[in-house]
Amino acid sequence: MSSLTETKFSSEEPNVGEQERKLSLLGGGLMILAGLRHLRSPLGWSALALGAGLVSRGATGKCAYYSGLGVNTHESEKEGFVARSVVTINRPVEDLYSYWRKLENLPKLMSHLESVTEIDAIHSHWVAMAPLGTSVSWDAIITRDVPNEAIHWEAMPGSTIRNAGHVTFVPLSHGRGTEVHAHLRYFPPAGAIGVGIAKLFGEDPQKQFADDLLRFKQFMETGENAVTAGQSANDSAKRRLKSKMVSSAIVKS
Q1: Architecture of the domain delimited by 80-252
Q2: Domains of the chain: which residue ranges?
Q3: What is the pLDDT of residues 159-180, one digit of tens each?
Q4: Is the pTM of this model over 0.70?
Q5: Contact 71, 205 (CB under 8 A)
Q6: Which residues pair with 83 in a beta bridge?
């Protein structure tokens, strides 16, 4: 009985972010106007129906498609997007910390990064992939650095992508390796609508982050990358295609 009550309550909560709601209201209004101009055409009535749906979505902050996919851009707009992962690596904590602490190594592990350039001991410049084959960049600062234990970093104020992350290294007893805990929080450059549309096209930041950590494990244990050159090229092509689809959807919204 309590489960039914909780489900009913959650369905009454908005799952569309403020930015998306405004765009839905604007887009829906324009579609209704276009439909009214073509009432004798089936396309006109379709535009009216779609426009009404968008206006309702913007007014109520509720989206049935998002509910089915488990997407909530209302929350992600406020809290950001969070990815966490844990992996055990059969290497001493000193080796893992040293490799990660050289931030310029991170693009070898994280599929969304193009480059990281260390400016000084705590400042760095990051470049990541963005829609339509473009890139987005920001400067970051290391906020906490405990050798062989933890590294915390975050984007500098005013950065295009607000983000922060940390990684901790926990040595296991009896030479069983090291447990690596990684945590990332970010606000996508396109805002909450970008997160929602990316989800619709099957992107899964949590899975991607977990895959990145597994890539780190394989590289540190075997010295080889988990992805072959052919697979990497294929994945890049898929990412470019999805980026174009996401950008197109954002522009049309």
Answers
A1: 2-Layer Sandwich (3.30)
A2: 2-74, 80-252
A3: 877 889 999 999 999 889 999 9
A4: no
A5: no
A6: 184
